[in-house]
Structure formats: structure tokens, C-alpha cells
Amino acid sequence: MTPNQVTAIRVLTAFGAVALFSLGEHTVALDLAALSLTITAIALDAVDGYIARTHGLATPLGAQFDILGDRVVENLFFTCFAAAGLISLWVPVFFFVRGTATDFLRGLAARAGRSGFDGNSMLETWWGRSLVSSRASRAAYATLKCICFCALGIALSLRDTGATQAGSWAAAAGSNWPLPVAQTLAGIAVAFCVIRAIPVLWEGRRYLRGVERPPERVAPVLVSR
Fold first, then answer.
1. pLDDT confidence bin for 118, thresholds 50/70/90
2. Which candidate, 46, 40, 51, places its Cα nearest to that of 12?
């Protein structure tokens, strides 16, 4: 299986999780399935990178496709929970605007031959790579989003179920205690997102100024005989 195929499966898994969260009827089986798919969708983000590194399948296209998968997954979950009224609508709007800006700069960098997360990355400073492309930063960010999405999903089930469905784990819980925790985690995710965007915006500014451009083509010289 190629890294791009894993990324595609990750996106489809996220759609499945959101679909289950959005159902009007919540049961133990459906809630557990939604949580399992959420965890799987986040975990697969590490799998595609691992396959790319260990099998020598890392490509500029694959790096961009991986970033696209990240954008789809996070916007999908945040939009779902914002539409349900659990978080502010500005949360998915913020992630969309932030992702559009950083990906625009990454696209300019890719045209200049700088892409991915390795030595050819657009990030040249040590602090930029530490905040954005280091394994520790990416793992912490993925873990934060996974816990946040799961907490929001539990809060949604508790709110919709209440104490009306006998036998539901949400009814047994008796309250919507995860909501303030989930909202706090969403706020932390926004702050973390801002911090990780700073290096991309700062180092990407040179591509807007045209400091680094692909070499210009030299017109052939015609020699008369």
C-alpha cells in the first residue's frame, strides 16, 4: 500500500466518523464506532509518513497530498461540531483561513523546488522545523486533535441522548461533563495551530517577494553560417 492510498483511506475514515457523530440516534455501538474511526483517522497520519520514509516512497506530490489530507480531516471535524453548536463557527473558519494561507505559501515554495518535511523543506530555520516538521511537534498536534475530536463527539452524544435512551452509555453518564473540556481543548488546538503557522508565514514571505525563483530560461543564440 502506498502512502497516498493510506492518506485517502484516512480521509474516508474521517468522513465515516463524522457521519456517525451526526446521526440523530446514538447507541453504544455507534458511539464506539465513531470514536474508533476518529482515532484511526488521526493514527493513519503517522502511518503514511512511516511508509514513505521506510520504503523510499517520499515525493513532493505525496507531501502535498498528506497536507491536503490534514486540512480535510481537521476542517471536517471542526465544521461538524460547529454546526452542532458545540464550538464557535469561528473555529473551523480560522482553520480554513490558516490552512489556505500556509498552503498558498507552500505552493509557491514548491514551484521553487522546496517541499516536504526533510532537508528540502521550505523551512530553513531550526526553530521553524522544530515547531512545524519535527516528529515531536506533529505527534503532539495530532494527539491534541484526536483527544479534542473524541471529547467533542462524546459531548455531542451526551447532549443528544440525555436520559431518554435506556441502555445508552451517554444516559448512564447523566451529564454533559466533556463539553467544557472539549471546548478548552479546541481553544488549545487553535493556539497550537497559530504557533505552528508562524514559521511558515515568516519564512514563506520571501516567496512573495520573489527572492527565490526558478532559474530563467536563456534564449538560444542563433548563429548564422
1. low
2. 40
Cβ-based neighbours of 103, under 8 Å, separated by 6 or more: 67, 68, 71
d(Cα 21, Cα 41) in Å, to the nearest integer? 14
* pLDDT range class, residue 91, cuts 50, 70, 90: very high
Residue at 217 is within a domain: no
22-36 tens-digit pLDDT: 876 777 888 899 999
Q: Is residue 16 part of a domain?
A: yes
Q: Which domain holds residue 187?
A: 3-208
| Residues 33, 182, 180: CA angle, nearest 5 degrees | 130
Kindly tell me the burial class for residue 52, based on how many C-beta atoms sit within 10 Å of its own C-beta (0-12, 13-18, 19 or more).
buried
Cβ-proximal residues to 102 (8 Å cutoff; 6+ apart), any chain: 197, 200, 201, 204
Q: Can you tell me the distance from the alpha carbon of 47 to that of 40, in angstroms, rounded to the nearest whole number?
A: 10
**Residue type at 6 in one-letter notation:** V
Question: Could you tell me if residue 216 is inside a domain?
Answer: no
Residue type, 91: V
> Residue 185 falls within a domain, yes or no?
yes
Q: What is the CATH number of the domain that holds 34?
A: 1.20.120
Counting the structural domains of the chain, the total is 1
Q: Which of 56-60, 135-139, 199-203 comes out lowest in average pLDDT? A: 56-60
How many other CB atoms are there within 10 angstroms of residue 145's CB atom? 24
